[in-house]
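Researcher: Sequence recovery benchmark, item below. Answer with residues only.
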């Protein structure tokens, strides 16, 4: 009887690992790891030389900056927000609004091919992660509580972008 209990426990533990492994494997993957065929690619060492430590943490390691810490949250001039990693045009100031969340927010990307999305399970439930379509850099997340006409809120880390005035 004791022998059967041990085998049953091993089986149940193995089954739990088999079910959880695919989800857990995706939890720590950055967009660049999930998709390798971006137009702009660099080694981790090249990205570290190009980006500040904080930019690298956000863009390449899917980090998040502290709320209300980015000057781009209060940016009101006309212009374009571009990827801090590769310069890809991401968002227009015409689509920016104050979401009062502490991060720059937009109701849509500058065009259909500017950003990509993936599912992020890092905090235990699925969220829509948004990344630069050209280099795969993590930008932030998209939520369904934005204004018309899209109802979307692209909640973006300011350190993931640079602003180019019009």
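Model:
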């Amino acid at each position: 009887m004791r022998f059967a209990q041990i085998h049953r426990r091993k089986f149940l533990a193995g089954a739990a690992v088999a079910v959880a492994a695919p989800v857990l494997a995706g939890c720590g993957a950055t967009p660049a790891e999930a998709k390798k065929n971006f137009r702009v690619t660099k080694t981790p060492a090249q990205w570290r030389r190009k980006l500040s430590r904080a930019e690298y943490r956000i863009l390449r390691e899917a980090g998040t900056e502290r709320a209300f810490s980015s000057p781009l949250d209060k940016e009101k001039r006309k212009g374009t927000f571009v990827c801090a990693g590769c310069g890809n045009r991401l968002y227009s100031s015409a689509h920016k609004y104050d979401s009062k969340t502490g991060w720059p927010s937009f109701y849509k990307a500058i065009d259909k091919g500017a950003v990509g999305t993936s599912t992020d399970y890092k905090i235990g439930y699925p969220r829509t992660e948004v990344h630069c379509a050209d280099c795969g850099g993590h930008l932030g997340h998209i939520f369904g509580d934005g204004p018309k006409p899209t109802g979307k809120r692209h909640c973006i880390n300011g350190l993931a972008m640079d602003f180019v005035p019009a």
